[in-house]
Each structure stands twice: as structure tokens, then as C-alpha cells.
Amino acid sequence: MKYSRLTKEQFEELHQEFINFLATQSITGDEWEDIKKNKPEAAEQELDVFSDLVWLGVLTKVKYLEHISPNQIHLFECNEKSMRLIALRIENEHVDFTTKEGFNWLRDNLLSDSVEFFNAKKDYSEDKYLDIFKMIQSGASITKGELFNYFSKLVKG
């Protein structure tokens, strides 16, 4: 398995898609029940293959990621060959970006000397989607890019 197995809840949510997946392999509902009961390792493999297909479908659509921690914000734009990063950092332990108050503080103090901006570009390894997957596994969230685009204008300006 390349990515990770979907959770029980995710499988339940994708129940119809999984049925369709089995159907593409000419596996009926009765046959699936038989495989689960008599060939558990084959059933596990089917679950893993389906999980990887779902993940790949999600990862190919990712355009923006963000990772917000108490004193840092990392915003990523996932381009074809590389990833662009805009990072903000603050040395004030009384401000926590993960709270509404911390975000409000950032909005009000954005151009102060206490907020550091970083801009970088990083090429993907040989597997772009695995790179993105690892970032999600380490806490990044898939977004529509509103924060990235907002700060991108500021950094350029």
C-alpha cells in the first residue's frame, strides 16, 4: 500500500464507490462476503488497493495546503513540478495562531517587526503525490488557498 488504509468511517462513507470498485473487478456482493470470510488476506489487499485509489484521486486535486501551529503558519501552493511556501513566524509566546484571538492579533499586527515572512520554493521528490500525502499525514490541511493567495499578494507587494 502506497498511502494509508481508509478508516472504517471513510469506508462507510464511500460504500457505493467501494461496491463499484469491486464490480470493476467482477466481484459480486456474495463473492465479497466469501472473500472476507475465507480469504482475509485477499480482502485486505482489496481494501488497500481501493484506499490507494481514493487517496490518489484526492491528492491529484490538491492545490493548496496549510499547516498552522501556535507560532507559525505554513502555506503551500502545490504546482506541477514544485511547491511554493509562504511562512509566517512570530516570537511572541502570548500569541497563538491556532486561536481566533491569535489570528485577530496577526491581522492587526501583520506589518509589525514581530511578524517574520519567508518565501521559498521546493521541488518535489520523484513522487509528488507521496510528498503531498506525507504533509497531510504530518498535520497539513487541504484548503482552497484563500490564506495563501492573501499572503502571496502581500509578499509580492
Automatic annotation (TrEMBL):
Superkingdom in the source lineage: Bacteria
InterPro entries with a match to the protein in the record: DUF6495
Stated name of the protein: Histidyl-tRNA synthetase
Natural source organism: Winogradskyella pacifica
